[in-house]
Design a protein that fits this description.
The chain is α/β, with parallel strands linked by helices. 61% of the residues lie in helices and 9% in strands.
Length: 295
């Protein structure tokens, strides 16, 4: 449950009271979401930011669709996230999927009047970079791509291109990701970020040719010293953005069989550090462990 008085969870039992009745006094935005839905989780902080910026002139009700199937059926929800705006007891507007914050505010404005205009000028809107970064961090690459393409068309920017390349790599559009990296203007300034995306592309390409995880797990169960299986599992984890488990596997292999495949454990660890960035907690932790193992 949110700490904000303007944001709350609703169920089938109290929906009419908290949403429909309140909507006669002020607009109520209803967020139909689920725990497994990555775009839902990326959209939530944006909706919360908008709601808080309006200081009580908008309410945000959250419906967990896994727990509230009655409401999902009642309103014909077919995809997540779905956002529905209620006014005077009726649904009056809404959208499905992830939208830029500016588009959501524009949808709300006719129902908010002067309050919406004041919030637009006085509130701090999330930037496109913040929005798509949140989507990418939750694995919602397909939702991030159109937002990035729209922003880049309006104003090309190297930071946006880096994010687009990351999102394309996340959807296995690897050649396209490489092409986007080639369009970056100041490659020297973006050197580390480019290296990180290229590492992700490399891991994903490698993983496409590896056996399934279950097959590799069986090999390790038979022989715990199977360095190839350990390495391939780590790369599969990297392709799926499971960085911590991959780093743990690579470090174990580095300590046990450092020279495997022409020093692949150490080279891959360094690539992961590039991918995560020098300030990332996992980079700091595992770089220290790697150098302790070296010396």
């Amino acid at each position: 449950m949110s700490q904000s008085p303007y944001i709350f969870d609703v169920t089938a039992d109290d929906f009419d009271r908290y949403v429909l009745e309140n909507s006669f006094h002020k607009p109520v935005l209803v967020d139909f979401w689920a725990e497994w839905c990555a775009p839902c989780k990326a959209l939530m902080p944006m909706l919360a930011t908008i709601t808080e910026s309006l200081g009580g002139d908008l309410l945000l009700a959250k419906v967990n669709c896994d727990e509230q199937a009655v409401l999902t059926e009642r309103f014909g929800i077919r995809s997540l996230p779905t956002i529905v705006l209620f006014k005077d007891g009726q649904p009056v507007d809404g959208f499905a999927g992830v939208q830029p914050e500016s588009a959501i505010r524009a949808m709300l404005e006719p129902y908010l009047g002067t309050a919406g205009e004041a919030a637009e000028t006085g509130g701090k809107e999330m930037s496109v970079v913040e929005q798509v970064s949140a989507l990418i961090e939750t694995g919602a690459y397909e939702d991030a791509i159109p937002l990035l393409q729209q922003a880049i068309t309006a104003q090309p920017d190297d930071t946006l291109l880096i994010l687009l390349a990351r999102a394309l790599a996340g959807t296995h559009q690897l050649d396209e990701a490489e092409s986007v990296l080639g369009a970056i203007q100041d490659a020297e300034a973006q050197k580390q970020a480019i290296a990180g995306v290229r590492a992700q592309v490399t891991f994903t390409r490698q993983a496409l040719d590896f056996p399934e995880r279950a097959v590799l797990d069986e090999r390790l169960a038979t022989s715990a010293d199977d360095s190839e299986a350990v390495y391939q599992i780590a790369v599969l984890d990297l392709a799926r953005q499971h960085h911590e488990s991959a780093l743990a596997g690579l470090l174990d292999l580095f300590q046990r069989d450092r020279g495997y495949a022409d020093n692949s454990p150490q080279r891959t660890l360094l690539q992961v550090f590039d991918l995560l960035g020098g300030d990332h907690p996992l980079t700091i932790q595992y770089r220290r462990k790697m150098y302790q193992a070296l010396y």
